[in-house]
Amino acid sequence: MLTVHRESRRLSRRLSFSASGRELAPAVTLRRTFREFWPDTRGLRPLFAAGVVFAVLAALCEVAAIRLFGHITDEVLTTRNLEAFWVPAFSWLGLATVAGAASFAGAYITALGAERFLLRLRDRVFGHLQTLAPDYAEKRRLGDLMARLTDDVEAIEELVGSGLVKAITTAASVVFFAGAAFLVRWDLALVTLALIPAFLVVSKLFAARFRVAAARERHSNGAMNSVLEEGLANQPLVQAYNRQRDEARRLHREGRTWLRANLSQAWLSGLYGPVVQVIETVCLIIVLGVGAWEIAAGRLTIGGLLAFAAYLALLYPAVQGLGELALTVSEAAAGSDRIIEVLRARPAVTDAPAAVAAGQGRGRVEFDRVGFAYPGRASRPALHEVSFVAEPGEVLVITGPSGAGKSTLAKLLLRFYDPDEGRVLLDGADVRGLTRESLRENVTVLHQETMLFSGSVRDNIAYGRPAASMEEIIRAAETAGVHDFVQDLPRGYDTPVGQRGRLLSGGQRQRVAIARAVLRDAPVLVLDEPMTGLDEETAAQVMAPLGRLMTGRTTILITHDLRQVPSGARVIGLRPVPRHERIRLKRAGVPRLARDRTGAGHGASRTGRQEAAHAVRSSGPVPVPLPREPPEPRGPREPREPREPREPLVPEPGGVDAGP
Ligand SMILES: Nc1ncnc2c1ncn2[C@@H]1O[C@H](COP(=O)(O)OP(=O)(O)OP(=O)(O)O)[C@@H](O)[C@H]1O
């Protein structure tokens, strides 16, 4: 036994840490599973208790019915006395009716509690996932996360909800049927019950192996879902690159792993039945042999023997049911490992206990000597000593090469993460002192990749303000240039946009996102590469609505492309810290800088000591000239001549290189 357990633990560990099984969580005990999920049954426990009561009532009725059967055998069949038949016969019928009704009520009420528990559990896990920084889901395979939210959550329900009801009622049935058998002949019952431990030993042996097989099945199910999800979501890419066969092969590979895991489960559960049946048959043969002996000796009636055998016939499946429950528990525990792993993940940031609501701000954004490294990447900070100010209504352009940390600025402003050094301020208040909800009410981000849901155009525009009226939605759509093309859609604003808005063109998707931002009406706007993936002509169509959106808002425009810089905007450059420079600055004890670059302009970029000295001078809040007027909306642009490829972050004359 001990060896089996050790082996099972070893295998689980191996699965947990194998390269391909990264998402497989370490095993947790049953107790831990209950400690984690039992509180979620609050309010549903009366339903589970009622389920137990009805199931127990049904079992008691069966015990009584068998007793009547023995009575009929001895008093009616053996004595051929028909008079004595009717009363026990009708009583039997009455008992069968009550047992049927109780069994139905028990099953339905248990299902009622179980389904509600499932709903609650899924809501809890999904709700928790929503509190984690978006990177948590991005780093994982979506299909695997979805498998956790469906199959694994169901497995937990089968353990903590309906599984518990089943365990209690099966245990009660074992007690009743064994008790009734004892009442008929305690000595005979003792002989047969002595074989019950054999059932338990067999199920324990099987459960240990079943648990490993179940963990493997859970994991491969997640991997298979991931391939399906990725293959379907990226179908245009798959077909355009002629990778259909490769994707099918990938699915087949994962499917084969899943098949092997399922087959080993089927092998175990298929073998379990016959092994138990052999033990059961041994018991029955012993009972019949001893019973025949006792009848011949006149110490037992035929009715007594038949009733005894009938109790055993019900007792063994109940004992077997307990054993099977151990298999279900093993499977459920594998699922609960994976859910607990999700629930254990802590959000990168939470609201401070004394956090206050931000209110509708003016939109002054300040980064004050901000330093930040992503979790687990302390040696490669994404930002270091970055300082700049965006005044209310100003358009601040942040440019720089890929990987310089531009998008990271938006994540810090939204408080997906907190900086390791320095502060991010909104209207003078450190964002760590504001509630995240109120902070995010003040900031609208237009992401690099336009994010739409599969609802209608109207649903997508109103996403940030679900209570908005149709007039407000249309006004926002007009500002964003959506209204014109919506007229041509088959169902106007009610036209479904398809999965992730795929039924719209790239430019249309971007304009719907702009309308959503207009309707939200936040004082701070972050545009993260808003023209990515749009051709020159489409970009020009989006430019005018974007200009209208920016009007009167503090706008932080993140872009590689300085052609997109609106007139009157201030530009700062950001570049990643080269390794040698990081070491040099560290040795010199000189803080890394984000240098501000205004239209009034400094010269070209500096190097060496000059730059370090400048870094010291420019750390802290940077004086920024305020534009008197909000930036002019930009209309469609003239097509330009193709440009020479730019060096990353070449300072424009009169601009400022805000480098590390
Ligand atoms: N979730 C993450 N976990 C770990 N590192 C990350 C994460 N997101 C970004 N990084 C790293 O942080 C650095 C800055 O990334 P960021 O996305 O901010 O750059 P960027 O300037 O916006 O680049 P691009 O212009 O290509 O979008 C990069 O080195 C990147 O690899």
Automatic annotation (TrEMBL):
PANTHER family: ATP-BINDING CASSETTE SUB-FAMILY B MEMBER 10, MITOCHONDRIAL, ATP-DEPENDENT PERMEASE MDL1, MITOCHONDRIAL. Residues 365-607 form the ABC transporter domain. This is ATP-binding cassette, subfamily B. It is a multi-pass membrane protein. It comes from Nonomuraea wenchangensis. Keywords: ATP-binding, Cell membrane, Membrane, Nucleotide-binding, Transmembrane, Transmembrane helix, Transport. SUPFAM superfamilies: ABC transporter transmembrane region, P-loop containing nucleoside triphosphate hydrolases. The chain crosses the membrane at residues 47-69, 89-114, 266-290, 296-316. Residues 585-660 are annotated as: Disordered. GO terms for molecular function: ABC-type oligopeptide transporter activity; ATP binding; ATP hydrolysis activity. GO terms for cellular component: plasma membrane. Belongs to the ABC transporter superfamily. Lipid exporter (TC 3.A.1.106) family. Pfam families: ABC_membrane (PF00664), ABC_tran (PF00005).
